[in-house]
Batch of 4 targets.
Target 1
Amino acid sequence: MARVNLFALLRCLEDLPTYDEEAKTIADGKRETIQFSVGGVGQARVAIGGGKIEFIPNGGRCSILLWFPSADKLNAMFAGTGKPIPLKGLTKLGYLTGPFTRLTERLAYHMRATPELLKDKGYREGNAALSLCAAVYAAAEVGNNDPLGKLNAARMADGEVRIAAEGGPDFGLSVHRGHLECRKGASPRPRARMVFADLESAGEMMRGEMDSYTAIGAEKVVMGGYIPLLDNFNKILGLVPRYLR
Amino acid sequence: MKTYDQTRSRELFLRATKVIPGGVYGHLGPAEGCFIPVHSYPLFSTRAQGPYFWDLDGNRFIDYMCAYGPNILGYNDPDVEAAAQAQLKDGNCVTAPSAKMVELAECMVDTVAMADWAFFCKNGGDTTTFAVMIARAATGRDKLVLTRGGYHGVAPWTQKLGHPGITEQDVANNLWVEFGDYEALERVFAENKGRIACFLSTPYHHPVFEDSRLPPEGYWKKVRELCTREGVVLAIDDVRCGFRLDVQGSDKHYGFTADLSCFCKAIGNGWSVSALCGVDSLKEAAGSVMYTGSYWLSAVPIAAAIACVTKMRAMDVAKVCTEKGRTLTTGLIEAGKRHGFDLVVSGEPAMWFMRMADDDTGEIHQAWVAECVSRGVFFVNHHNLFMNAAVSVEDIAFTLEVADEAFAVVAKSGIAASVRNGR
């Protein structure tokens, strides 16, 4: 779960300014780079400022360094029940408790949909795009680390899977010898594709309002190419909700 | 050529999704059936006759999936239907089974070369599970050897760990080898000496999404000897191939004798009945396993199967389907060549698999199949196709005409270039 939190959920902050005015304002502020170092899991950085939020999936130069001795500690922070240990940037604790905390709250707001919030078209779009991003990156982590996920990933042929929503985000999931790697942007030569008709359809599926079989039959999602790749990917995707709660 | 419209199918599908998980689930549905794009395919039928079915929008299709195998004589075959209707008047699902059950068992023993007895169920998966149970009962062993990519139904033990609903325990006794790799099989037997109850395999390899593979020369003879030597039950899943390669069984076709043979699909020309046939030495074990179902001994499907098997024998249906399949696939390959496509055909002619060469995405093949379907020739892009005896010379000619036009459309669309060069 820590890898999903660190490399999938945290990454969603990148897209938050597109859908949230407050996040955009924070992103327009002074640049700060926060590094998350998690014992036994890995490191990642979030660079905020200069008009954007950037997720960097490794450690390096940073203005604030947060240390989590174990995966549990990171998960506790994501659950709102634990705090990190700052090793660098002690003078910037105000940024952590202020703008950064606000960003994570806004992310939670956009990802934890309620029937009331979903009445708003703009909210639905943001929820769909952020959920799709979280799901695809989380699937890569689950495929590389979860015992059942690894079994399904090992059954995937080499190649790239395009996962996209028309008029919305576009992801490429590359598979090489059962290892999955995800990136943003359209695949130049996908071996298989799974493209939602629009963000609305992606959101309905991500929120569980529409099952995948119905979505395929109703052409709310269009599949093509080497289907065993998608078949196994979907089995990994099916494991993701166990981690994204 | 006019292409079909599927509006009413779409509408009913949306209705179905409200009350049925997935709308149309399983292999007949748009997801598992790989309907790409979905709007080219019919989702519901209204009637079927001979080699054709008609969809909800009134479009006629020459059906080369044959309901995934059951249709072998032609839909609504008059002899099979007459037998079923006659039995229906007398009774179907009754407390005491009909004498027809004994007649069908005698018919199977007379027809299937390896059979000393027959046992009836409903679906192919009923028979494969029963075969495994019999093997375990007979040997007192727990392990099964299966071939990678082989399909034996949907019972938990036939599926893979990591698939929804499957636990580690469900598949704990499964061992896997590549089809046709005798040395690998021998190695697995040696590594699990005294623990393997059963080797279960299709007579030739007909997985989805990849070329079918015929058994290598001498493969089955060596497998037969190995199983006999090691006390392992050799069970053949003849559910898909049964009667299409040889009415006496596919083991006969490939020159060996199985201990257990699983039949379904073609046995009743669409009536719901399956059969497990076995050799004498396994009869007692078969009788010892508690295995039954509410409708397994219903007399109507059994009466239909008697008529179907009798007719298949009389006309040598395997020879008929093989010849028609050979004519059709030869024509399809030639049609592809005319438009610059290399259509690769594999497997047995009565149930061939096809794909387009030089396309690891399958997109070109998917596009061509969809164009054929939208002109009235029902193919699928991921699974072997099936020939049936009702397909006429005119049907094959029409199919080739459609295939030619579909190739032309795909060639003109430029999809081949975009797939090969990236988009």
Target 2
Amino acid sequence: MRGLSLRRPASLDDFEGRALAGGTDLVTLIRDGLVEAGTVSDVRALLPRGLDGTRIGAGTTLADLERSDEVAEALREACRLAASPQLRNMGTIGGNLLQATRCWYWRLDYPCFLHGGDRCHAREGEHREHAIFGNELCASAHPSDPAAALLALGATIETDRRSFPLGELYRLPTEDDRNVTALESSELILHVEYERPEASTYLKAMDRARFSFPLVGVAAARYGGEVRLALSGVAPIPWALGSATELDEATPLPGTAYKLELARVLVRRALERVGA
Amino acid sequence: MVEEDALDPWQAGPLETVGRPAERVDARARARGEVQYTADVQLPGMLHAAVLRSPHARARLVAINLDAARSLPGVRGVIGPGDLEPLTAEPNYHGQPVAAVAADSFREARDALAALAPQWERLEPLLDPEEAVRRGSLIGEARRYSRGDVSRGLAEADVVVEAEYRTQSVLHNALETHQSVCVWEDARLTVYTSTQFIWGVRDDVAEAFGLPKDDVRVVCRYVGGGFGAKNEAGDYTLIAAELARRTGLPVRCALTRREENLDSGNRNPTIQRLAVGSRADGRLIALRGEYVCALGWDGWLPSVAGPMKMLYACDSVETVEYGAKLNTSPMAAFRAPGFVEGVFGLECLLDELAVRLELDPLELRRRNYADSDPLDDRPFSGKNLAECYRRAEPHWARRDEVRSRSEEPWKRGVGLASQIWYGGGGPPSYAWVRVGSDGHAVVVTAMQDIGTGTRTAMAQIAAEELGLPLEHIRVELGDSARGPYAVESGGSSTVSSMGPAVRAAAADAARQILEIASQRYDLEERVLSLRNGQVMSADGGSWPLEEVTGLLEDAQILGRGARGPNPTGMRVLTFGIQVAEVAVDVETGEVKVERIAAVHDVGRIINPLNAGSQVEGGIIQGLGHTLSEQRLLDPRSGEVLTQTLDAYRVPTAADVPEIVVELLDVPDEHLTNLGSKGLGEPPIIPTAAAVVNAIRDATGADVRSLPVTREELLAALKEARARALAPQAG
């Protein structure tokens, strides 16, 4: 952390280094040496905040979303079940989408695949909280509840330079590129816009009643006769599920087989909830 | 000196102050942040230590550059292997201390650790406790116990149940991490530390530095939690003392949360292979237990077989306990060490037997009630477990109604488990009571209050004996240089050890006050008493206490008290029962504990308000043990993965069920001038078994391993379904 400088730019044009909004993940990552940052720009006051129908300012906190009646149920519930009230008061939706995995090997800075190493320590190690999809090279699980909800809600991301579907924000890490997000250097998320569903829900299994990352989270949103499904906690990135039968394509590890059972039950319940 | 046993026992039930709810005397100051924890101690020129810890479970240090750290800005002292006993070049667990740096700031100290550039040769760790037992890697001898003829008992039994239970490692995670500030003045050392045992720290540190014991002064005003892991000086204290000695400045060594979860003690995992044989009517005729405790690199073997040996009347019992020595961090006492784990195994086994016998689990326990100590037939000083069972009946009787509220996918059920533990305390412990001319009293003793409300309980006892309002009592504790020896705050022994000494000291002071009053009012001492801040005479006369104490001017009344012995030839134990109600989502394995009723017999209750808090705290910590807490290691390297509180999951407020506390409040007539036993540990003991038995009641699933994670419960539910579908065998 030596030499870290915190800037408060007057406008987003002056922004440099890493963007700090709620700081609920970034501060711990910098503290633990997992993110190298010489300069951090506090953009909290500069980010758009609040709701305009289905368009959400990136600086809107999870607490704002959880309390709003006009937010789609899946997103509201995902925010309500995330973290703790204190963290939801600070954490922003933009930052939440970009949060890093809770994989203990990654957080403890093991030279794992995601950190650029040659193997995933979790696959052969302790992995009860890890992935059942997309886990061949890296078995980490994406921890964001709202990301799964927004994925099911067909969200679009607007940055300071382009807009694209939320699904394209995420990418599985590859030999050539270990990043799990596709933002360019110093690109900032400014808005998230979703499509209002006829019905939506978010169901979450966790290790205690509150304040836990998802073992499995399932978001479902119904648009006419079509239901979109997305899962949290099951892959290195939020995982869109074409249909319930795609669960048959899961590749659970010995210690994550139970997650597939959980996913089957929660997907079935979510589909029932949205009236599929 | 007035010995406690010279005093008449108080009558049972609430008295003037004792037995009545009292807000903690320090509650407001603590809530306002005004009290000084060790974490708050700031001394002029104080340095901060950071500790280099082994990143491997077993390794040999090939190279280290202590000099590189010495030249860095702010660094004042660096020590490594060979400089201090706990620092090692051949660490045997992840997190074992290797070197330490003292610097002007913690950041400079921590940054200097990187400059040490240690190089390691990694060695193969021993992690499997069963393998350790096979290889003879044990701490101490295997502990064997036998009475009767277990083989014959099991052969002759109408029903035999055998099962293997496992419990995990859980971490204390007190809010205040382990820490000390050490400062030398001449050749004498003062240690500010977060501890459960001031005098134990004094002795440990004096021995380590070759000092006369009283050249070490230990100060501990307030503690942010102990739970058993703060009974000794600890490496961090010795590191701070050595760096302070070398630099001539005060040094703080405070564990970070990660260090706390690496190397500050833990509840050791257990493997329990148990068998029970009974008659068709439920009478136990044989119990057998083989216990493997995964102790880590150091520690001691807790009495995990204790409950099997002591809880029920059973003629034939055979147990063996192994303490496996492994390349994991040393265990430490953790709130009823051994009995939490042993009661879990035994009380689940009993319920599995009850299912086989188709017998009510409460009735099964009643049929095996031990009227005297099963170990040696000694009488109990006081055992009211039967009364606890009776008081539990209304809670137990709720089970039909609870079950009937089951609705897919939530199945509901009720389970119970008995509690057994020590808690009688013992000598030595001393207290002084000082009364000045203003008629206020000060209790002085060098004990510690680890957050359990000790100050308040001691003030209540002194107030009762002196007939003073609680506000007129101060309790000065937490400093070995300013009070007499007192027991450690562990083993549920604080109130039972210290309380009688405080009462004796207060009685000694009261006697002296009455002596003066007798002269002042020309009345016989035997007709005088102290009550409501007054001196009262038998014929109805009363005078304000200050009128008597005012005669003292600068003189003081000094009362002294000591804890007497426990009753000879008797077993002093605590007992109880908890009844848990759960709801289980049989599709997802989610468990909601909805209600726990706790009925405990711990003798006289000094402060019902505080006692209720202890029971609630014990149950909540027990629920963490049951459902969500586990230290996870990398299975190959033995490195600790759950170092932070997002990965290591203590219960949240949302996990806390309705808790109903019932304390019998019956003084143990054979035990001390108070008849009080300890309550710190009893409430955590039966919680896990009660919850797991409730899960069985709700679903038919036999959970035999803690914590009850989703994967554990889903597997047990699957097995129960398969069993239900299978053709009935035999």
Target 3
Amino acid sequence: MGCGGCANNCSARCILVFDVCQELRILQYVGRRCTYCGRCAEVCPEKAITMSQEFETSTNNIGDAQQRLEVFMSTCQRCGRCFKDETALEKLKMTGYRFDDLQNQRWIFGARAYQENEPAVKDIAIEMDW
Amino acid sequence: MLKNLCQKMFGRSLWVYHANSGGCNGCDIEVLNALTPYYDAERFGIKLVGSPRHADVMLCQGPAMRATARALRAAYEAMPAPKLVFAIGSCACGGGMWFDSYSVLGPVEKVIPVNYYILGCPPRPEAIIYGVAVALGLLPKKAAPVHFKQAEFPIPRYHPEDLSGRGDLVIYEKAEKV
């Protein structure tokens, strides 16, 4: 369905949403920091996400844990009413069109999505002696 | 080739060093659980050592943090040359739940090169033993990325990679008719 409730309720913020246009939404699951809390499966109104007992997921390439869905959204306006939010504040922050940073695997909140020239989230630079 | 090299280099007893760089101790407990007589990793010769200078394998738990990144790097450099690094748990693999916090640098691969990733929060002891078996070439890996496309739009606006031409003349390669 592509409502993005899993992304909004993910505690590790490992489900990213990128709205290419009105009709198309990319949902990217970054499995590398998933804590398997099961909140996404709980909130999913269509029960599209299920938790399994498979634990043999170790790999030598971290890209193997990734899932990418390109979902057809037709005339959805992303109001976010098809899943339940934690608080009203969260609801204000999360609904609407979202443009997360798929390359750097980070969330970008709505207000900063249009600042194209500077990165929305910067890495911390610390001094290391090597 | 890497598999043969791994089997040659790490065919005998693996001595593991267990580096926690700011995790919550959940993965520590699971690693120690994998070494208990129930799972009995010592029958494969896997032994826990206290110093990185004695170790072949480094098990990293917890994200690379501002305070411990240098110590983690120093421990990695203290290990003798054929060495493997395992990132255990979602903190070490991807930074975990607090990946963008002010004190967390991110996954441990920002500080040291990581060979194998064991996902989970914390991973089961079976998963850790499975990860070691994958690293030794005993078992194939099962994880694979998933790509799913529900609809493909035959409109050039959504496929800028298929456009060709220069100047005013632009050709959409997938179009059936002009």
Target 4
Amino acid sequence: MATRSASASSTKAIIILIIVGLLVFTLPTVLVLIAGMIPSFIAYATDRRREKYKTLSVGCMNFLGLLPLLTMLWTKDHSFDMAFSLFADPFSWLMVLGAAAAGWTIFLIAPSVVAMFLSARIELSVDRLKRRQNKLIEEWGDGVSGNNDTRPNNDAVD
Amino acid sequence: MAPVILKELFEIDDSVPLAGYDSPSGKTYACKNLGEPQGDLMAMICEPGIPMRMDQITALDGFPGTGLVKCIDSGVVNWASSGRRQPVLVFEKPAGSRVFETMESVITPLTDDQIISGFLTPAVATLREFATRGLTHRNIRPSNLFYSDDSARLIMLGECVSAPPGYNQPLIFESLECGLAVEIGRGVGTPADDLFALGVTLLSLLIGRNPVSKIEDPYSFMLNRINTGSYANIVGNHRIQMNMMELLRGLLTDDLAERWPLADVQLWVSGRRLTPKQVKLPAKAARPIPIGGFEHENVRSAAHGLSLNWPIAGDVIRGQDFDTWIRRSLNDEVILNNLNKAAGTAQAIQSSPRADDSRLVAKVVMALDPSGPIRHKGFASHIDGIGPTLAVVFQDDILRKQVEDLITSGILKQWLALQGRVKTELMNIYGTLEKIQPMVALPGPGFGIERCLYELNPYGHCISPMIEHLYITQTSELIPALEAVAHDQNLPPMPIDRHIAAFLAAHSEHIDERILRPLTHKDNRPADEALKVMRILARVQSVYSNGPAPNLCLWLKDLTQPAVDAFKNIRLREQIERQVVQASETGFIVALMRILDDNKVIDLDKENYRKAQQEYKQCSAQIHRMDIGLEQKENLAGELGEQVAAVISGVIGSIGATVFVMLYLV
């Protein structure tokens, strides 16, 4: 037991060292990511669900808006200067925040759309069931609904 | 009025009444044969309420000679003046008139020669033929004699089939055995009873009038006859020639062993003359016994007194005085044996419970006078008179109850034990009475006292208020009769009542208890009674092939409407309604029954209805659930919407990234 626990701890330490190493070597990218993904961090901070749907919605779109900047950073010059210059361009911010806003919009509109869809589907089902009930009444009379049958029933014969 | 046709053989002219040939139970009209001429005929339209002797009509078929008014045929006709169907008897019309127009008539007394050659000779021949056939006339009296020729020389006996035996006979023409019974219950009797009536008739012809024109008190008259003999009480002070006295004493003696048989009468008619013997009187007891304030000196008198004073007779019988009288004063071994057989020992009699008094009295009376009628609770009838009595008194609650009590009393076994040789016909009636005794108490249609009525009157007509006026005597006539009833506007509640059910049960071998029993029980199925009735009528119609009865079917259709309404499936109900209408138009009840009595269809309809109800309930539950879902849609849509948003964003992000990478790489 003690051997296995020591092994797991050493694996964790190795992974952390690798990530730290990567962060050290990709600091411009980390800078762009940290600055560009701020809307996602805000979404994460305000997301109370365990499943983090809001974070996913905003994060996916936010990352899509950030992807051209990262590409430019990686393909032109992977440096702090380049990272700062990218953020100095308002168009870059427009793209990053616009994409994040689109994620917010999807997150806000989707429940209403789903609600509309659900109520339409329920109403259709209710209509179908009511039609079936009417058909049963047509076929069997009011009695089938549990109401008293109003037809005369002269069974008292001497 | 148009002539009435009987069986397409006889034409009855209801505008030509023949009043001179009427009988107390029927009026006579002119009649002619539409086929071969059969001489003068007359048709007697009989009272529907009085049973005829139908078995006697058959037994008299081919009766020889001219000594009897013979019945040629019988049937039922629509009689316009009464507005109903009535039984009719077709007789050969006597050539001459009636000898005595009524029992009160006075005629010129007949001479010895006229009586011997004109009356006794043919009468003895006729009675011999009756005896040969094992029959009795039981309707011999002056007002039922006719001249059989224009010259008024030969006298013939009148008809003997329009009423039960002895029913129309005045009391003096009945022997003690028969006269002690009620008029309708006098029974077929024996040739000795005919000879007694012949003797009184002979006396009437000799003196030219009724020898006892008025009987003030029948009880006292019969008591006097018992004590002092019928001869003394009927002949009385009338002056009779010595030669006739011998014959009259021989015929009017009350002792059956002493009464002349037919052979002795024949010898007398042929010229044998003996010294007249004194009429033998019944053996007297050493001292009389008082019953109901009257002193009785012989057993028959005591039996008569006990039977008529039956409410107090139980106390009399249980008293020590009665036992002493039987054992010491009477000193008759035969009577003692009879008492032992019928009622048991003296101790058994004395310890008999008071509640059983009526049976005890009946048994003791039976033991004292075994040849007399069966007497129970004031009612007296011979065993073969019970059926006709029930037929005549059925609408009288008190008399019907008396007959019912007699049948259920269980005293008939004792009656049989006390009889010597019993005729086959009487044994058959006894067997029927034994069979029906347990049925009297059964409450359902087809049983009860109505069943007794029809079992005991195999030729009787059905007296159901519905069809009584149609006078049906055979079960094959029932469907046409009900069809005629169904043609009227005012329909009875059901086509079968207690009378019709009992009539069918008694007269048809095809309607047995299995079919009738369900009528006793009621259940909850709609129109169940009508369906049970329909099953019975369908069977009757199919067994007797009566042809279509559309009105009856329409009637049944209306009665069974609740059964149609009971079908839950509307389309099926409409289909069955159409089928029922079509079936009722055919006039065959069985067609109706096949539709309404198909349990498979009924059960399937019920099962499907149950399933439909379940399905309706399930639909309602689902709708309810969905209504709740609709109210809570914001909650549901919230989580689902966020999921959808995440998925959409993810998808757009993935597609966008892929597109971007691809565009960049290209």
